[in-house]
């Protein structure tokens, strides 16, 4: 798949998943907003009904008192009787949803007539129609008079109630009952807390199990809204578990968002893997092309030298014969090195490296490598120092691969040395925490911090500026990392630009 197609597919899919995710989030936000509005409306409706119930109870109490005062039992012993009927409706759990009381006063017929018909009312000169109109007018006047009396009584009741302190007007038990009943009637079955304040804002009561959690979203309601002297009081109600209630109402949408996010992450990982595989494939292609080009040079040189050896005149010149032999030997080593690089690359495609494990004295192995490498270091005017202080140097490892690891790290020190400064290469060993540590330190050009974390990746080569003569395939340190990992060890690099680089290897000791 071409790179342009991959990018186009990635953009389309990410845009689609992002749009779907945004739609889900937007839908949840709107749902939460709607649930909040419904909850607020239900609570306000419940509190308003609570206020109405309190006013109704207070009015009924004063009317009953006025009624009992107006009835003289001594003068009218058999004038009537009071019948009381109570009705209640229950829900599950014996919660009372509504209740009401019916009181009926039955009176005996009065001995005096409602309307006294006099001669003024019934005149011989008046017709029946006129007489009827006269009677209707009389009844109307009586009704207006009685209505005015009732208004006066109601006004007196309001004034009497307003003069009573708010602490004595409220029955806390009855108030709590009304709150619970009205909230249940509006579909709210949550734990609630409330406080009562007077008109000056001072708190005069709070519920026994009061909890300030959720008080920032409290609801206020005037208890006696039609009070004349502004002695009504205010209730402040809040729900500590409101957040959990809202979450439970929308939690069925959470799995859909989680699945969308998982799909989005899976798609991103898939596209990333495809991109990396494509990049790796391109790197391998470049590697093969470069390696093919590298193979041509030594093969051509060896072929030319072999043709020259067939010349009889060459036998008469020992100096020329030795020169051609040296060239063939050098080019053979070069071919062997290139073949080793190819084998290293093929090794990465295997799940596990075939290691020939045996007991190895690391101090002795490193000393042999140092002795062999001294000639190459001294060629560039450098020095190599070994400080092998490990008292327990024996590990179980593959001798050939560990030797290649040490050689590669030393060879990198030579490649990336400073041109204007003599190379100083130091190799150390020591024991710590039941492990054998190996450090290889140089005073070369160093590695920038942003490149340091990538140096163990396959085919990655640190930009070296004007060091155009340094050749490689980006496999050396990746090979080192893999071999150390296969030996259940660790390797890390410490470097500073223009100061030098230090590699530290930790291997488990043989038990």
TrEMBL record:
GO BP annotation list: osmosensory signaling via phosphorelay pathway
SMART domains: HATPase_c, HisKA
Chain ranges passing through the membrane: 6-28, 252-274
GO molecular function: phosphorelay response regulator activity; phosphorelay sensor kinase activity; protein kinase activator activity
Phosphoprotein as UniProt keyword: yes
InterPro entries, sorted: BphY/WalK/GraS-like, HATPase_C_sf, HATPase_dom, His_kinase_dom, HisK_dim/P_dom, HisK_dim/P_sf, Sig_transdc_His_kin-like_C
EC top class named in words: transferase
Name of the featured protein: histidine kinase
């Amino acid at each position: 798949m071409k790179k342009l197609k991959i990018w186009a597919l990635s953009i389309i899919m990410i845009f689609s998943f992002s749009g779907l995710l945004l739609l889900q989030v937007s839908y949840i936000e709107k749902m939460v907003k709607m649930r909040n509005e419904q909850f607020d409306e239900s609570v306000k409706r419940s509190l308003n009904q609570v206020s109405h119930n309190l006013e109704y109870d207070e009015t009924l109490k004063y009317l009953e008192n006025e009624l009992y005062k107006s009835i003289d039992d001594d003068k009218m012993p058999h004038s009537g009787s009071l019948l009381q009927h109570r009705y209640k409706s229950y829900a599950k759990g014996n919660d009372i949803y509504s209740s009401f009381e019916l009181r009926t006063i039955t009176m005996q017929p009065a001995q005096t007539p409602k309307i006294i018909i006099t001669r003024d009312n019934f005149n011989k000169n008046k017709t029946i129609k006129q007489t009827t109109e006269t009677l209707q007018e009389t009844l109307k006047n009586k009704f207006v008079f009685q209505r005015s009396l009732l208004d006066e009584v109601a006004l007196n009741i309001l004034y009497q109630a307003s003069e009573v302190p708010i602490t004595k007007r409220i029955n806390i038990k009855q108030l709590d009952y009304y709150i619970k009943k009205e909230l249940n009637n509006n579909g709210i079955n949550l734990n609630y807390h409330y406080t009562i304040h007077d008109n000056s804002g001072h708190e005069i009561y709070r519920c026994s199990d009061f909890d300030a959690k959720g008080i920032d979203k409290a609801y206020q309601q005037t208890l006696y809204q039609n009070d004349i002297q502004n002695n009504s009081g205010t209730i402040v109600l809040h729900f500590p578990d409101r957040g959990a209630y809202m979450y439970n109402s929308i939690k069925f949408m959470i799995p859909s968002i989680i699945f969308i996010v998982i799909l989005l992450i899976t798609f991103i990982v898939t596209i990333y893997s495809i991109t990396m595989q494509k990049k790796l494939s391109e790197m391998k292609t470049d590697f093969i092309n470069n390696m093919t080009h590298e193979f041509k040079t030594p093969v051509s040189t060896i072929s030319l030298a072999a043709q020259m050896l067939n010349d009889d005149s060459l036998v008469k010149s020992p100096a020329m014969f030795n020169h051609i032999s040296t060239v063939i030997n050098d080019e053979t080593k070069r071919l062997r090195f290139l073949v080793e690089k190819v084998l290293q690359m093929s090794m990465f495609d295997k799940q596990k490296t075939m290691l020939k494990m045996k007991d190895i004295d690391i101090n002795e192995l490193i000393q042999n490598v140092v002795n062999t490498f001294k000639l190459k270091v001294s060629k560039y005017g450098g020095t190599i120092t070994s400080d092998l202080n490990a008292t327990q140097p024996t590990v179980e490892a593959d001798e050939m691969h560990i030797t290649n690891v040490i050689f590669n790290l030393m060879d990198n020190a030579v490649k990336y040395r400073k041109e204007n400064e003599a190379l100083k290469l130091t190799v150390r060993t020591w024991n710590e925490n039941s492990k054998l540590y190996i450090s290889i330190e140089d005073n070369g050009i160093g590695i920038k911090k942003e490149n340091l974390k990538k140096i163990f990746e396959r085919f990655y080569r640190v930009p070296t500026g004007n060091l155009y003569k340094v050749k490689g395939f980006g496999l050396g340190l990746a090979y080192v990392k893999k071999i150390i990992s296969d030996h259940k060890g660790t390797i890390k690099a410490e470097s500073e630009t223009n100061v030098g680089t230090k590699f530290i290897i930790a291997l488990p000791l043989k038990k």
